[in-house]
Design goal:
The protein is built from three helices and no strands. With 68 residues, it is mostly helical. It holds the Pfam family Sel_put.
């Protein structure tokens, strides 16, 4: 998206990013940016690997545990 539509949607994206961060939703693009800046010599995980890693980190490596 470019132009006026992107500018109009920017505040909504910022709010969505903020809410996702509060809820603990992993951000793959942010991870890629981090890897590019801080670990350029390492191969980043694929998006699927990244989300599996984030889920394992959040739920103790055993996937999603539910009470019912």
């Amino acid at each position: 998206m470019d132009g006026w539509l992107a500018r109009c949607l920017r505040p909504f994206k910022a709010v969505a990013d903020y809410l996702n961060a509060i809820a603990g939703v992993p951000d793959y693009q942010r991870y890629l940016e981090h890897m590019r800046r801080h670990h350029p010599d390492q191969q980043p995980m694929s998006e699927k690997e990244f989300h599996r890693w984030a889920t394992d980190e959040k739920y103790g490596g055993k996937g999603i545990r539910r009470c019912c």
